[in-house]
Amino acid sequence: MRHTARFPDLDDASVFITGGGSGIGAALTDGFLEQGARVFFVQRRDGTAFADEMEDKHGRRPAFASCDITDTAALRDALAEAARLHGPVTVLVNNAANDARHAALEIDEAYWDRAMDINLKPYFFAAQAVAPGMKAAGGGAIVNFTSISYMMGQAGYVAYTTANSGINGMTRSLAREFGPDGIRVNALAPGWVLTDKQREMWATPEGLAAHLDRQCLKEHLSPEDMAGPVLFLASDASRMMTGQALVVDGGVVVTG
């Protein structure tokens, strides 16, 4: 059994997570609830069953809304509802993304625009929406999920890696702009996290073995491995850390 560090300042915090009902996002919701936070998450699918599971486990229920994050108005509405229920959002985790594979010569303009609408645009507009409330609350933390894929120059999903790189630029600029208001903005860059989706769609025995060979730590990453780093970035334990990209990949990009 893994033991998660305790971050007392996250107790009763108002937390908003995109894609918080499955994969990495589900592990994040679970982790914040364990800290005593009040969590609101969005996803396209119905989150009732997952919310029931979390309520049974923690004795408190995360709120959720079915939301397509490419619909900026709907995303803003969900953020406003979270603030109404739990108070101003002081922790925003931009987690939802789509790393669908695609060949560079086969994508058209509509595909490109859709990829940016999913993987980049919502990160900015969610951050924009929560900033006034965070300022009024005396500060807050924004954690943007990116990926090591753009650092490795990986082929096969150029729109996704382009968005990932853009997230890092956005993170640095927002850290500078929001910093005077006590708002910290950091990025988390995971390696290959074996969610159910990854196992079903892209993980092969050969691919898994090759990737593990590149890691310093010879254990595949799980969604739960992302919870601790996000809690750290959201908490006062990292209170003087902003504009950074924290890599959690088992030791791939730092070693080549």
UniProtKB/TrEMBL annotation:
UniProt keyword Ribosomal protein, yes or no: no
Gene Ontology MF annotations: oxidoreductase activity
Keywords: NAD, Oxidoreductase
Domain of life: Bacteria
Pfam families: adh_short_C2
UniProt family annotation: Belongs to the short-chain dehydrogenases/reductases (SDR) family.
InterPro entries (alphabetical): KR_dom, NAD(P)-bd_dom_sf, SDR_fam
Keyword tRNA processing recorded: no
Matching Gene3D superfamilies: NAD(P)-binding Rossmann-like Domain
Protein name: NAD(P)-dependent dehydrogenase, short-chain alcohol dehydrogenase family
Annotated ranges, domain Ketoreductase: 13-192
